[in-house]
């Protein structure tokens, strides 16, 4: 019996073929005059399978760099980290608030600190943002940075750094972030509902919202499950794992940290404003007059 042909392998529903191809057998008849060689067209290069929808992350602005403040404000990361650690030590709810803030800022008109602006009709007044917290931490970090590096570090970069440090403070991975964002000049409550994820969204609605930002289903799972920090009493979920876990737990898969780092980088690259498209606010709660 001949071997069965290999089944097609699928990736995200896209069929792919094996790299090995079967060669055609060539036969000859003894004594027969050899046929003149025939010219066969070169085999066509197979077209690459289409990429899965929304598998490519949004391209960060070329103006962003992990070393953006290396010369102008080299102590920026240390300063923000100190403020976050001090605030989180006094109030354990701060890390979750900072992580939620960056999500609400970046999903509405991009990572531009528009969620920080106070006033009538601003994003901060929308019901979806009324429960946000941690603004005092951002303001304190800005106050400190204005003392050592005046008019240099944007509020939008402070939000991103503070959220990153909040994750690290609670035992999560420390990931590098690119900096160089500018702060928005406007903040409108009317922009919130069309962009933010609502608690009543179905899975399809959430997937569509993420796709509209250039984010994948993997990003949806990672960021939806990790856009805040909290705790729960064991009694509320013990029965979900006890029968299979036999009372023990397995180590956390290290790839989760890599997934989080990638999704966080993509989230904080949304709608970035650079150069003259924004400003460096003197106060995070208001645009420069």
TrEMBL record:
Low complexity bias: start-end ranges: 16-32
Region (Disordered): 1-61
Amino acids binding Ca(2+) 2: 228
Co-factor binding details: Binds 2 calcium ions per subunit. Binds 1 heme b (iron(II)-protoporphyrin IX) group per subunit.
Domain Plant heme peroxidase family profile: 63-289
GO annotation (BP), single: response to oxidative stress
GO terms under cellular component: extracellular region
Comp. bias (Pro residues): 33-60
Cofactor: Ca(2+); heme b
Catalyzed reactions per annotation: 2 a phenolic donor + H2O2 = 2 a phenolic radical donor + 2 H2O
Database matches in Pfam families: peroxidase
Catalytic residues, chain numbering: 104 (proton acceptor)
Binding, Ca(2+) 1: 105, 108, 110, 112, 114, 123
UniProt-listed Enzyme Commission number(s): 1.11.1.7
Residues annotated to bind heme b: 227
TM region positions: none
Molecular-function GO terms, alphabetical: heme binding; lactoperoxidase activity; metal ion binding
Cysteine-cysteine disulfides: 73-149, 106-111
Alphabetized UniProt keyword annotations: Calcium, Disulfide bond, Heme, Hydrogen peroxide, Iron, Metal-binding, Oxidoreductase, Peroxidase, Secreted
Site (Transition state stabilizer): 100
Domain of life: Eukaryota
Subcellular localization: Secreted
Family statement drawn from the similarity comment of this UniProt entry: Belongs to the peroxidase family. Classical plant (class III) peroxidase subfamily.
Physiological role: Removal of H(2)O(2), oxidation of toxic reductants, biosynthesis and degradation of lignin, suberization, auxin catabolism, response to environmental stresses such as wounding, pathogen attack and oxidative stress. These functions might be dependent on each isozyme/isoform in each plant tissue.
Protein name: Peroxidase
Organism of origin: Triticum urartu (Red wild einkorn)
């Amino acid at each position: 019996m001949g071997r069965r042909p290999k089944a097609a392998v699928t990736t995200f529903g896209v069929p792919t073929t094996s790299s090995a191809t079967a060669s055609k057998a060539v036969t000859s008849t003894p004594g027969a005059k050899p046929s003149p060689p025939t010219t066969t067209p070169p085999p066509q290069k197979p077209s690459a399978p289409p990429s899965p929808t929304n598998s490519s992350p949004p391209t960060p602005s070329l103006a962003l760099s992990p070393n953006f403040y290396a010369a102008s404000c080299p102590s920026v990361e240390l300063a923000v980290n100190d403020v976050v650690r001090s605030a989180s030590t006094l109030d354990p709810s701060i890390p979750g608030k900072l992580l939620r803030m960056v999500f609400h800022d970046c999903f509405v008109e991009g990572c531009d600190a528009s969620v920080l602006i106070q006033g009538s009709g601003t994003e901060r007044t929308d019901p979806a943002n009324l429960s946000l917290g941690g603004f005092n931490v951002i303001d304190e970090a800005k106050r400190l940075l204005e003392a050592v590096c005046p008019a240099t570090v944007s509020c939008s970069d402070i939000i991103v750094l503070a959220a990153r440090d909040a994750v690290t403070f609670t035992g999560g991975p420390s990931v590098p972030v690119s900096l160089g964002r500018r702060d928005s000049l406007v903040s409108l409550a009317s922009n919130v509902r069309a962009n933010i994820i609502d608690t009543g969204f179905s899975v399809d609605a959430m997937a569509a919202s993420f796709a509209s930002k250039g984010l994948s289903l993997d990003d949806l799972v990672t960021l939806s499950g990790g856009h805040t920090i909290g705790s729960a009493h064991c009694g509320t979920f013990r029965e979900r794992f006890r029968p299979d876990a036999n009372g023990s737990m397995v180590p956390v898969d290290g790839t989760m940290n890599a997934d989080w780092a990638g999704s966080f980088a993509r989230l904080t690259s949304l709608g970035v404003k650079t150069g003259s498209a924004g400003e460096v606010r003197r106060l995070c709660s208001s645009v420069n007059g």
